[in-house]
Amino acid sequence: MPAGPGVGEISPGYRIWLHVSGVRMFGPGTHELLRKVAETGSLHKAAKLMGMSYTKAWNLLRKTEEHLGRQLVERHVGGASGGGTTLTPFGLDLLRRFDSFMEETDAAMRDAFDRRFVGWPDGPARDEP
Q1: Alpha helices for the chain (secondary structure H)
Q2: CA-to-CA distance for 83 and 98, rounded, in angstroms?
Q3: What pLDDT, on the 0 to 100 scale, is given for residue 67?
Q4: Distances (CA, A) of 62 to 24, 55, 65, 75, 123
Q5: pLDDT, tens digit (0-9, with 9 covering 90-100), for 10-29
Q6: Are 30 and 61 in contact (CB under 8 A)?
Q7: CB within 8 Å of 80: residues ≥ 6 apart
Q8: Which domain holds residue 86?
Q9: What are the φ and ψ backbone dihedral angles of 16, each rounded to 5 degrees?
Q10: Distance in angstroms (rounded) separating the CA atoms of residues 9 and 113
Q11: Which of 5, 12, 75, 114 has its CA 20 to 30 A from that of 107?
Q12: What is the pLDDT of residue 58?
């Protein structure tokens, strides 16, 4: 029986991006960045948590905003709270919609995977004779 890194439980994996006119503009990285901005109230902290430079994070958001023609985040400078970054209502809506889309995609993928691969390679798939 073979042994090694290829032996073990098989499971599906994927990455999904949204495109505008065929150009990738929103996917796992931007999604995670928005989620962390929402959690921390800071683009700087969000970028740091992701191991990304603030400049790269800011450029990623600006580029996505340009593709969408809408603002995703608002910067708040100084003040008693020390400033920070929050999601705009549009940014929050995008985050929620992408979360829901991913949940539905995960469920559909698990169902399709179960139909085709449960029991494989030792037996037929669920929907096969």
Answers
A1: 28-40, 43-49, 54-68, 89-117
A2: 27
A3: 93
A4: 14, 10, 5, 12, 50
A5: 889 999 999 998 989 999 99
A6: yes
A7: none
A8: 18-116
A9: -125, 140
A10: 13
A11: 5
A12: 96
Stated pTM of the model: 0.81
Identify the bridge partners of residue 87 per DSSP, sorted by sequence position: 73
* Tokens found for residue 72: 């995703």
Residue 13 lies inside a defined structural domain of this protein: no
Q: Find the CATH number of the domain harbouring 87.
A: 1.10.10.10
Residue 79: both structure tokens together: 């003040």
**Do residues 91 and 99 make contact, with C-beta atoms less than 8 angstroms apart?**
no
CA angle 113, 105, 109 (to 5 degrees): 0
Q: Cis peptide before 121, with omega less than 30 degrees from 0?
A: yes
Rounded Cα distance, 85 and 33, in Å:
12
